[in-house]
Structures are given as structure tokens and as C-alpha cells.
Design brief:
This protein is an alpha+beta fold. The chain has a domain of about 130 residues: HIT-like (HIT family, subunit A, 2-Layer Sandwich), CATH 3.30.428.10. About 30% of the residues lie in helices and about 15% in strands. It has five helices and seven strands. The strands form two sheets. The chain has a five-stranded antiparallel β-sheet with strand order 3-4-5-7-6, covered by helices on one side. The protein has a two-stranded antiparallel ribbon with strand order 1-2. The protein is globular, with a radius of gyration of 19 Å. One of its GO terms (biological process) is sulfur compound metabolic process. This is Putative histidine triad nucleotide-binding protein 1. InterPro entries: Histidine_triad_CS, Histidine_triad_HIT, HIT-like, HIT-like_sf.
Length: about 200
């Protein structure tokens, strides 16, 4: 069962929806700007002309569009993990969440309450998972930033991990050192942003 769920996640972006010329449910999106950025080794083939999301944005591949504005669009996943599984995608090409500018991430996230509410009402769900896969080990398949909205119902048994027993955090020296390393990285990133002229509210304790 876990293998099938993994396969569904991996395949969810690989095949665009097949359409007929008369179908009123399949809408080709109007061409929009989808600028390319450099990508690391292993991500080639998913950028620019070969990226399925870029093709959808340019109107070269079909999709069921739910929402669109100047920065992002939302479509139904072509191989959903649940009924109403949707994707929020930026119109410019960024290979991962880390490569996506904060303003774009903010624009995408600002639509989550609005879109998720509509999806839940339409599907009769009262819960949803918000998911971002960043990197191959995390299950990212298409290297164009996207946010999953996955409607949930009680006892749908979608994630095997939900049945796993979680262990309490050990407040020992190793954990303390981990927290210190994370804070150091945050302070380093904060100083880098300050040097670029961006303000910050990060405070070290």
C-alpha cells in the first residue's frame, strides 16, 4: 500500500490531462511569462521548455484551472492523492522552494486560506494537508516550485506515517547543539539579508 501511495505521489505530475476538442472541462491556460533560472545537476529536463508546469502556464499543455492571478495559478492535480487535490504554482520558473523569492512564496501562501476553503467546501472535507516537497529525497519530481493542497476526511488512511508512533524530543546536549546550529544559520542568513538592504525582525536569544 505504501508503494502505491509513493507511486501516486511520483506520478501526480508526469502526465497532463488528455483532452478532446469539445470538452468544456479542459481549459488551456493563456500563455504567461515563465522565466528560466539556473538549476543544479540532476534537475535538468524540468526547466523551461521541458517543464510541464511551464507548458501549462504558456498554454501548451492542458490543465483544469481553479484560480489565476499575476503571480500564480492553481490547478487540479492530474493524479490526485485525494478528491480535490490541488496545486498552487508560481508563473515564473523556480526549481525549488529555496530558490523561490520570498515575495513569490508570500503571494502563493496568501492564497492558501482562500483556495483551501473553496476546495474543502466543494469536496465536503473539513481538513487538508499542506505539502511542499523540496529535493529528490523529499519526493520532489517536478523541479518547479509548487504547493499541494490535499483535502482529507477522517480515517481515509492516506499517509502511512500517521499511524507511526512519535517519540518525545530528548532535551539533551545533542538536541541543544542542533538548536544552536540552526540558530547560527538563521543569524547568518539574517545578516546576509541585511547586507542586501532588506529589514529583518529575527532576534537571537
Amino acid at each position: 500500500m505504501e508503494a502505491r501511495r509513493r507511486l501516486a505521489l511520483i506520478c501526480s505530475h508526469l502526465h497532463p490531462i488528455a483532452t478532446s476538442g469539445t470538452s468544456r472541462f479542459h481549459e488551456n491556460l493563456k500563455p504567461k511569462c515563465c522565466s528560466g533560472v539556473s538549476v543544479s545537476h540532476g534537475e535538468k529536463g524540468n526547466q523551461g521548455n521541458d517543464c510541464i508546469f511551464c507548458k501549462i502556464i504558456r498554454g501548451e499543455s492542458p490543465a483544469l484551472k481553479l484560480y489565476e492571478d499575476d503571480t500564480c495559478l492553481c490547478i487540479l492535480d492530474t493524479n490526485p492523492l485525494s478528491h480535490g487535490h490541488s496545486l498552487i504554482i508560481p508563473k515564473s520558473h523556480f526549481s525549488s522552494l529555496q530558490a523561490t523569492p520570498p515575495l513569490v512564496v508570500g503571494a502563493m501562501c496568501s492564497k492558501i486560506p482562500f483556495i483551501s476553503s473553496a476546495v474543502m467546501k466543494a469536496t465536503g472535507c473539513d481538513s487538508f494537508n499542506l505539502l511542499v516537497n523540496t529535493g529528490t529525497a523529499a519526493g520532489q519530481v517536478i523541479f518547479h516550485t509548487h504547493i499541494h493542497i490535499i483535502p482529507r476526511k477522517a480515517r481515509d488512511c492516506l499517509w502511512a506515517s500517521e499511524s507511526l508512533r512519535r517519540c518525545p524530543l530528548k532535551l539533551d546536549q545533542e538536541t541543544s547543539q542542533l538548536a544552536d546550529r540552526i540558530r547560527e544559520q538563521l543569524l547568518f542568513s539574517d545578516k546576509s539579508e541585511d547586507s542586501k538592504g532588506h529589514g529583518s525582525s529575527l532576534v537571537a536569544n
